[in-house]
Amino acid sequence: MKLGIAARITAIFGLGALILSFSMGGLSYFTTRHFLLAERESAAQHQAFANATLIRSSLESGNTHYDQLLASLDAGSDSHSAMFHLGTAYLSSLSLSASSLPATLRNEVLHGTAATQTYSTGAQGQPQIVVGVPIPSVHADYFEVFSLSDLDHTLRVLGVTLIVVGVFTTVLGTALGRIASSRSLRPLAGVSRAAVAIAGGQLDTRLDSDAADPDLEDLTASFNAMVDQLQVRIEREAQFNSDVSHELRSPLTTLSASLEVLEADAANLPPRAQSALQLLGDDLRRFQRMVRDLLEMSRADAGGGDVFIEEVDVAELVQRSVEAGLRDQAEDSTPPPVVTEPEVQSLHVAVDKRRFERVMANLLENAANYGGGATRITVGLDSEQPTVIRIAVEDAGPGIKETERDRVFERFYRGSASGRRGTGTGTGLGLALVAEHVRRMDGRAWVESSEDGGARFVVALPVLAGTGEGDEDGNGDGAGEPW
Hints:
Elements: H1 5-60, H2 66-71, E1 79-85, E2 88-91, H3 103-110, E3 115-121, E4 126-135, E5 140-147, H4 149-199, H5 217-264, H6 271-301, E6 310-313, H7 314-325, E7 338-340, E8 348-351, H8 353-370, E9 374-381, E10 388-395, H9 417-420, H10 430-440, E11 444-449, E12 455-462
Parallel strand pairs: 7-9
Antiparallel strand pairs: 1-2, 1-5, 3-4, 4-5, 6-8, 9-10, 10-12, 11-12
Helix pairs in contact: 1-4, 5-6, 7-8, 8-10
């Protein structure tokens, strides 16, 4: 799994804190251990040599009371002595034995070399220092053993403390990394929000160059310049579409009038001319619809086209919009049934009637062109959002692939439908206008599969609060206004 920038920065801070804390802790531990052990060895050697001098003096004076001699030595409570004289071992404590002394050190001392060694003894491995001093003038060897239990305990406490501090430092470093990454990426979050707003059509969105981070000034300037160019280009394209559409309306009006004259006298034309006239009429009317759609899309891009919101009864709204939408279709087309659920009979929505009629007309036309005609129109509440009304138009076609369900609302996108579904006479702008009109009325449009396998185009609109209750005649305020 690929980590994000914030996670990577946090991980780097945490790993850096871990390495630094344990490196410094390890260095501190081993430096302290080496210093304390060297100091203890020096003190042990000094004391052992001093006691060896006393033993030599006593033996040279003829003192043969070896046990008393060992007991009289200056030895602390944590040390014990052993003396070898003429091959006989003499010990100051029963806890010490000649065999417990390291063999290597004992051999060195017996061969006339003073030596010091650290070793562990006992079941629990207690650390100790043994110092061996040869006394050749009296044919004796002296050994003194010092316990390092207190030093070992001190080092253990120090080690645990350094580990705890290392863990705490790592956690603190990770937390600081998280804070640093959040603060560092905050300007990029502003860029992301601006990009989302621009993608949603708010082309006047810009980054604040005055409040920008000094390190991101170039990014801010480049981003704003890019949006400026994008806005200019979109406005030019919208203006171009609008100009072209307006320029085409005059010749189209002339052609339409001429076509009507020819169609009025079509019965007197030969069959071949009648077929040509029929094709000409179909293409001209399709061209007129395209120009009309382009003009409407241009107005939407330019932010034009006022939205006149009215409160209307949703059941009556859908019924009348379907009737109006069927007027432009063939006279022999069968009106699809409108199924209205009981719970929405008296609910109201706030819509622009003209835009909603256009939405229903485009959906019915789309069903006729690509889905074999609309089979049913349902009006009901959303099962997941009871405050939302769903108006669904179902067709008898093969449905729309999941990969195309978002793209069918793009301009001029017809996808695989243009090659296999129905007659394919659409312009590719109808569904784009549906999405735009529904968005302007605070709704949402999408497509899904119906139970019969066809396509179901859904328009979701919010229910007006306070409607559906207390209306004796089933109509709320404004529902009885004329259309």
